[in-house]
Amino acid sequence: MTSARPVYLVDGARTPFIKARGRPGPFTPVDLAVQCGRPLLLRQDFPTEAIDLVVLGCVNVIADEMNPARVAALRLGISDEVPAFTVQINCGSGMQSLDTAFRYIERGTHEIVLAGGAEALSHSPLVLRRGAVEWFARLARAKTAGDRAKAFTQLKPNYFKPVIGLERGLTDPITDLNMGQTAEILAHLFDVSRRDADAYAVESHRRLGEATEKGWLKNEMPPAVARDGRAYDHDDGIRPGTTVKDLAKLRPVFERPYGKVTPGNASQITDGACWNVLASEEAVEKYGLKPLARIVDSDWGGLDPSIMGLGPVASVAPILKRQDMAVADVDLWELNEAFAAQVLSCVAALDQPDVADGVLGLEGRGGRIDHDKLNVDGGAIALGHPVGTSGNRITLHLANTLKRLGKTRGIATQCIGGGQGGAMLLEAA
């Protein structure tokens, strides 16, 4: 058996995240993947022929782009002899692509892998109701004019009112709870107040606004150009002037009138894509590459879907135990901001001995994540959460931030709908 080899995150790029505004946005998932993939590949010191594999996370695959990884790879000019496949683990899909690439390179079968995530939530399909589907089936089977006339007498007006596919996708089929309701459960369990959730959201916008203004995202985020010539060069959901007073005016969405989750302290519905280039030590030396970070470890965790927002603590715990690290030993954290209440609950859980030690078995390795180490440039509340992309983006941004701030170790982690979590430990190269 081949011994595990070092794996490096060499470079990456993402599109600006574009907020969904009630209609299909300017880019499909593959369009987005191509928009950030082209400038990323053009600036590499290796030829595209050196890429061994393409893996892309995508949840809402559209009908015209089955296996978007393959479609994107061919549009990017990667050889048709290079395999490309799409992975799906809900919100963790973009991180799953990285984990897959990491494992292939680590075991010695691949040298360079392009791993990404792409999602265009604004293109989520409209779904016919079950009754409507059955009616259309009866109409299609009608063989005579009389049969067709009979079918038309059974037509109901609500057959023409489709269901938004995204609404179904964000509702857990086991618990029948939507993702916002699971965040409300955590807010109750960990005593997260509405004001704390709103204050966290305000800080996310402020931090992302500052990162944008100071140009910290420039290399990470080349502009995207739509077919009509319009250029998108920034995350358009940022509201850096938002205040707690502003957010306090918003009504709870899921548990009225006393709920903690509102449109202002939850992640935005957004379109966006991201790619990362992962390479072996041999490839780094061969092409003179300058990695951002080394991928040290990764893991996945599962838990009750009704508290799916605690997925990060379930996936981080095995890494901390394996690496003999404590929460305080991690220099930077990227914890995807599905909901402010969910992030704050994860912070609280790791700091509570009955959870950290009693449930997770951390044996004193728990503790409170320092606010100055957590999502230092904001997160999904301010820029959006294209579900198949976010895990890829937070990992890339963590690598860039470790380098910018001169830090050593960081963890990227996220909750995953269905009661799961994913985490990845990086070390600055």
Question: Can you put this structure into words, describing what you see?
Answer:
The mean pLDDT is 95. The two termini are 27 Å apart. The protein has helices at residues 29-42, 68-75, 93-106, 130-141, 145-153, 165-169, 179-189, 194-213, 244-247, 281-287, 311-322, 340-351, 353-356, 380-383, 390-405; strands at residues 7-14, 18-19, 53-57, 84-87, 112-120, 126-127, 163-164, 224-225, 231-232, 270-280, 293-302, 332-335, 409-416, 420-428. Helix 1 (29-42) packs across helix 2, helix 3 crosses helix 15 and helix 7 (179-189) packs across helix 12 (340-351). Among the domains are: 129-164, no CATH class; 179-216 and 296-428, Peroxisomal Thiolase, Chain A, domain 1 (3-Layer(aba) Sandwich). Strands 1, 2, 3, 4, 5, 10, 11, 12, 13 and 14 form a 10-stranded mixed sheet that branches. Strands 6-7 form a two-stranded antiparallel sheet. The longest helix has 20 residues, at 194-213. The protein contains 15 helices and 14 strands. The chain is 35% helix and 18% strand. It has 429 residues and is an alpha+beta fold.
Considering the chains and any ligands shown, give keywords for the structure.
Peroxisomal Thiolase, Chain A, domain 1, 429 residues, globular, 14 strands, 15 helices, two-stranded antiparallel ribbon, alpha+beta, ten-stranded mixed sheet
SSE arrangement:
Layout: E1 7-14, E2 18-19, H1 29-42, E3 53-57, H2 68-75, E4 84-87, H3 93-106, E5 112-120, E6 126-127, H4 130-141, H5 145-153, E7 163-164, H6 165-169, H7 179-189, H8 194-213, E8 224-225, E9 231-232, H9 244-247, E10 270-280, H10 281-287, E11 293-302, H11 311-322, E12 332-335, H12 340-351, H13 353-356, H14 380-383, H15 390-405, E13 409-416, E14 420-428
Parallel strand pairs: 3-4, 3-5, 12-13
Antiparallel strand pairs: 1-10, 1-11, 2-10, 5-10, 6-7, 8-9, 11-14, 13-14
Helix pairs in contact: 1-2, 3-15, 7-12
